[in-house]
What we know:
Chain A is of the alpha+beta class. Chain A has helices spanning 5-18, 23-30, 34-42, 49-58, 64-67, 75-84, 91-115, 134-145, 157-163, 200-216, 233-246, 249-254, 263-273, 277-286, 292-298, 319-330, 335-346, 352-358, 364-373, and strands at residues 167-171, 178-185, 189-195, 222-226.
Amino acid sequence: MPLDQQLLGQKLQRYRNQFSRTLAEVSATTGINQESLQAYEAGTSTPSGDEILIFADYYMCDYKFFISNEKLAPFEETETMFRRYGPEFSREDRWAVQEFLFLSECEHYLRKDLVKDPQKRFQFKAGRSAQARLGEVAAMQLRAHQAYPGTGIPLDIYKDFRSIGLHVFRRKLRNSNISGLFVNHPVAGGCILINYDEDVYRQRFTAAHEACHAILDSDAGFVVSLGSQKQRELEIRANKFSSHYLAPSSFLRAIPEPRSWNTTKAIEWANKLKVSTEVLAYALRRERLVTPHTMSIVKSVRVPKRDKIDPEIPDTLAPQSKKRKRELLERGLSNYYVGLCFESYREGMISAARLAEILLLDGDSELIALADLYGERLKYGN
Amino acid sequence: MADTCSVWNVLSSDRLYQSATSAGCVFCCTGYVNYECLLKPRKKAYSHDVELQRRLRAARNGGKFQLFSLEIEDLQEIEILERRKKLGKGELSSIAFAKRTRQAFLTDDKNALKLALEVLPSGHVQTTPDLFCWLIFEQLLGDSDKQVVISQHESLKRPLKEQFEECYLLALQYRLASRGVSN
Lengths: 382, 183
């Protein structure tokens, strides 16, 4: 396939602008001199094959994106997102988003082409539902799809959403105002990022909120959920979805004396649902089980932090392992994803160097340490 | 054409490296492998990695580990494109270059070796333990060198001790068998 030098130059320049990098910064990290970078961006010169690979490594994307006209990266989506929400995305957070999209793409490949992970595709059917009820209807349909009984509580919602083909990653973002975002990746499909900086229960709510965007708003290309955002219709709908998915009517109505609340009871039941007392209060109000006054009592207290257990960092882990896994989660590396990567390696589907790349590790020193943590063994020689 | 891990493994033992170069082995790598070895920023600088980088720079200053540049057309080869999400970019670049120039590809990762054999002829995919085996077989490394090679290699936290031990025994078996043939 002939290379379009101008198009390649535009991609390089637009990527550099998306991530607010100067030519000097790109040059310092890639080892490619500034004059060459300028000529590549202007389309007056063509990079070598090695340099194409270096750009793919630097911008964390498939190298084929640079040398073909295929839409292989959510390039336009991130460009529009960063332009629209400019000041919300620091340089570090833009990079974090790119890492998340890279992980999503890798996960998609491993699931689809290598491991053949069985997934139960979910297709929402709006039927004659009123616009205002779409969030609630979608939540109920998804609960039925997951075969939850009426009073069943989703304990590991990350697993739930992965099981319908979404790519769910949690990662620490510097801007605590961004609770999460959804991107429709041209190759990987629905990708959800949750700010790991948030409280464990809040993260569950955000995950469900972003899943709603993935189910109902995939045509938008991307949606960013900001804490300070004026409530748009899209966001209200996603909140309703979260509320109904995590705290369904039948569960709330099965609570003993569901109209009578004190602070102890609020903490107890919020903890059973694994939601904040605020989410519980709104759900009770939604069901018209409480008055505004009782609602304020329910949300006046907080579930103690020690009671909130992250499904991906179980209490059974040794303190050192917990610490290491928390560090990995902050970088977006969930147990599920790391396990999937090692499984692909064990099956001989990917090399150790590729394994290190898709785990965002520097090289084999880091890979050996991670393999030890997960009780995995690397295979050498012939 | 060495990939990143085999560059480190070859350089990890001075005895092994000197013996191989004296025997006429020529190591080279792609521009991408050079980037991965020497230029790509790392989160943490381990002392053993810093030492290996110093050795690679010294070798390159002495005219060894020559760099070769990959063309975009090499990356557009169907066999390379199909394996781009299975192999590391260093391995991919080395295989693409080795394929075009009919050179041997040196890797120490079992899966990379298997995937490379889908693209390159079997004699063109080798490992550092293979090299060690050959040097022992040819008596370019003596019995006393075995332990030196392994301890030098291990001192830089490299992982091939077991494979070197196995290849040492294999070389002795080959040598014994070849004597049997010649007798």
